[in-house]
Structure formats: C-alpha cells, structure tokens
Specification:
about 280 residues; alpha/beta; six-stranded mixed β-sheet; six-stranded parallel β-sheet; about 20% strand; binds 2'-monophosphoadenosine-5'-diphosphate; about 35% helix; single chain
C-alpha cells in the first residue's frame, strides 16, 4: 500500500519494451487520481532480469509488469508465486511487499475475460466450442481463462504440435489438441476463436488461417493490439463476425495491478481507450 508521502513508482520490464502502451495507460491513472507518481518502461535484457527485479524494492517501486520475454523466467526469481500464476506458468505482475520481498501473480487471465465482457456482455465461454491458435505464454492465460469461465471444449492448434500437447497434458480439462494442418477445419461449429500467436502483429507475418468454416455467429478475438485490427480480425469482420482486439485485455489486466500496488481500482474509460487508440 502506498505511503501518502511517497512518490509512487511502477513500470514494465520487457525486451523490447518501447512499443508498450502501458506507461501511457498507467500515467493516465496517476493523473486521474491526482497521485504523485510515474510508470516507466524498463528495457531489461533477459540476463539482467534477476538484478532488475531485486532492485525494485531498494528503488522504492511498488511493483512492475512483465512482458515478452520475461513472464516465465521471472517465476524462478520472485520469492512467492501465487496459485493462479503457477497454474498458468507465467507471471505478468510483480508486487513489492512491505518487507521488500517479491510476489508474482498473473492478471492476463482477468484482462482477457474482462476485455471481452466490456465489449460483448452477452458472451459466454460455454456457449459452444472455442478454438485457440497458439500455445505460448499468451495461450496459457487464454486457455486457463476459457476453462475457468466454463468452456466445455477448447480446440487447441499450434504450429509446433508437441507444445500444444504439453499444454493440454498440464491443464487437462476441456482442451483437445488438433494438428496444425487441421486448423481451418477446426473452426466448424465454433462459438469463439482466439489468436494468441504473434502472427498479425506489426512486423510479423499474417496468421495463415481460412475462415470459411467459422460460423458467422462466432466471436473472433485477437490478443494482439498493434495494429488494432490484425489481418485475421479484418477478414473475420468482413465476413460478418463480431471481433475484439487485444487492447481491452491490456487495459483490464492493469486494474488488478493497481489494486495490488496502490490499493486503488482504476476505471477503464472510453477516454482512456481512445487516447491509446490514437497512438496506434
Ligand atoms: P507469447 O508469450 O507472447 O505467447 P511465445 O511463448 O513465444 O509468445 O508464443 C508464440 C506463439 O506464436 C507460439 O504458439 C508460436 O508457435 P510455436 O509454438 O510453433 O513456436 C506461435 N507462432 C510464432 N510464429 C508463428 C508462425 N510463423 N506461424 C504460426 N505460429 C507462430
């Protein structure tokens, strides 16, 4: 919890990190809540992560977020990892406790679900099969969220089959792994499709998937937010599917971080969203 006399500090550690919209988002909240504080991008090489995390307490940071490529490595460094982050296998948020020790949690799951709920309040994970493309860190949070929200069938496809197999073996539950070459057919009868791969992100290739089997009633979700509309989302929108980009997930995962660092639950307002959208 913040001391009233203290200048509040938090940040995001990533490599690269300068593309991140988190500083803009958190600094908007500092202003909005009339708090003296700042949120900084911290460009940390993987080999420097332990030193950087250990420096948070002496520097007076309340905590930090973690982005690519630190989410998994940080698990070995912090003093305590909560059950949710352990289950997902990644930390998205570090909290500096009063004694200087570091606690790790994962807010991506929450951000994913709340991001969808805000834009599509009627969406239900259990309404029909969900297809998840990708089996990396992002996918783990998404699969966990979908299962927790009541998805009865999650069809998981990943370029590297073994990685999807491992995820499914670890998580159990409703996940069914399908080979990469069956990804187009996997969309038949689906109610939700989520891209968790890096494909479609600026500077990356385009996600190679045919949407012709996807029901028009399905919701298409991308966790990428730069660009706001990936080629995958554009294709889905053009054929009549509802779409959701990754910005909502980014905005919403930041709320529980604030609660943990500063004891405040800030709002995701239209003004905030539009301010960030204008920079993308
Ligand atoms: P993150 O933590 O952001 O999820 P990651 O763990 O590196 O990042 O995972 C990236 C995901 O994008 C993986 O599912 C990866 O597939 P592989 O497991 O086969 O590597 C997927 N991905 C990356 N490049 C891809 C490509 N060109 N085509 C298809 N999938 C790709």
């Amino acid at each position: 919890m913040a001391h009233p006399d203290r200048f509040l500090l938090a940040g995001v550690m990533g490599w690269p990190v300068m593309h991140s919209r988190s500083p803009m988002l958190h600094n908007y909240w500092f202003k909005r809540h009339e708090l003296a504080g700042t949120y900084v991008p911290l460009a940390i090489r993987p080999e420097g992560l332990a030193g950087a995390l250990r420096a948070l307490a002496p520097l007076g940071f309340s905590g930090c977020n973690l982005t690519i490529p630190h989410k998994q490595q940080a698990m070995q460094i912090v003093d305590e990892v909560d059950t949710l982050a352990k289950k997902i296998g990644a930390i998205s948020c570090v909290i500096v406790r009063p004694d200087g020790s570091l606690a790790g949690t994962n807010n991506d799951c929450y951000g994913f679900v709340e991001g969808i709920r805000q834009e599509q309040p009627g969406w239900r994970a259990g309404a029909g099969p969900a297809v998840v493309i990708g089996a990396g860190g992002g996918s783990r949070a998404v699969c966990y969220a979908l299962a927790r929200e009541g998805a009865k069938e999650i069809r998981l496809v990943n370029r590297t089959f073994e990685r999807a197999k491992e995820l499914a073996a670890e998580f159990g539950g409703p996940i069914r792994v399908l080979p990469w070459n069956e990804r187009h057919d996997a969309l038949e009868g689906a109610a939700t499709i989520v891209n968790t791969t890096s494909q479609g992100m600026v500077g990356q290739g385009t996600l190679d998937i045919r949407l012709d089997k996807l029901p028009k009633t399905a919701l298409a979700v991308d966790i990428v937010y730069i660009p706001l509309e990936t080629p995958f989302l554009a294709a889905a929108r053009k054929r009549g599917n509802r779409t959701i980009n990754g910005l909502g997930m980014l905005l919403h995962q930041a709320r529980p971080a604030w609660k943990a660092w500063f004891g405040i639950e800030p709002e995701v307002t239209t003004e905030l969203r539009e301010m960030i959208e204008r920079t993308i």
